[in-house]
Amino acid sequence: MIQSLPTRFLRPSTRTLLSITRTRAINTTARTTLATAISSSKPSRTSLPSSLHQSCTMSTGTKSASAASHAELNRNSLFNLAGRVALVTGGGTGIGLMATQALAVNGAKVYIAGRNKEKLDKVVEIYNKDVEGEIIALQADVTKKEDIAALVKEIESREKCLCILVNNAGISSSSVTTEASDPKELKHNLFDNENATFDDWTETYRTNVASIYFMTSAFLPLLQASTERHPGWSGTVVNISSISGQVKSAQHHFSYNASKAAAVHLNRMLAAEIANAGLKIRINSIAPGVFPSEMTAEESDEFQKSHIPKEKYEDKFPSARPGRDIDMAQAVLALVSNQFINGETLAVDGGYKLAAGL
């Protein structure tokens, strides 16, 4: 019978061969165990044992990536926001309300901020029911630094951190006619138009761009505190921009589209500079296409929901319909939950940019 020699007496090449053989055997055993556990379990209900989840790894040279259990891949885990605190600006109607519902239904405590206290209170009255989280109204004007500072102080007095900030507050701008037959007519439409003013441009930028900058920077300490309190999580900001900032057409409102383009670029600058400062806070934005809101539909119903007829867009872009609450909710939850997305702008437009040739 041949006795095994200690590996220190073997040639280097032999030791290497033994190491490779043992690694392959371990990996084969792990894969076999993993496959057996998966094949014998019920896909929709059963998760892998925690011990198996901890031990199963996929070898990638000197690095390894943990395998996720069934429970971690379940929808209830992927988008579970229990214990998270959120703030949504402009949360009383439109996309802000869609985001508020999505977060609260999935367990987050959601503060909504805006200038119209009546609308905020109505959201609490109507929608703070049958949710796993909670909706709380706080009146504030996010175009004023003193109101933003007061909002930070109020959240600090109630919470130890802020996990999610959705900068949704926004306004439209005065419209202009771009169709013209000669330069004099176009000049008249764009310059002589009494609605084309510096104040219009300034106010649009103040709300759609500057408020994002000041809100995000003011809440950095609370956002970083969320990262430090919740392992595997990073404080996150979702800025609501628009595909109007990505298309070449002015769509009859230059100042609005220019402000949304600025918001897209501001999103990327904030993400880069915050990361360079060593903070683990993710900054992303959503560029919605046509969604029902008081801006697009010019009104809302008794539930503070707006409506756009589907047939109005049947022949205009691939989706052949305006966006729905569910479309926006899925986008918000994706950017909030996915810890591997940072500095991006997600277009949720039903193919509008495709139809526009972009």
TrEMBL record:
Organism classification: Eukaryota, Fungi, Dikarya, Ascomycota, Pezizomycotina
Entries under CDD domains matching the protein: SDR_c
Name of the protein described by the UniProt record: Short chain dehydrogenase/ reductase
Compositionally biased intervals (Low complexity): 36-52
Disordered: annotated segments: 36-63
Source superkingdom: Eukaryota
A Pfam entry, by short name: adh_short
Keywords: NADP, Oxidoreductase
Classification via Gene3D superfamilies: NAD(P)-binding Rossmann-like Domain
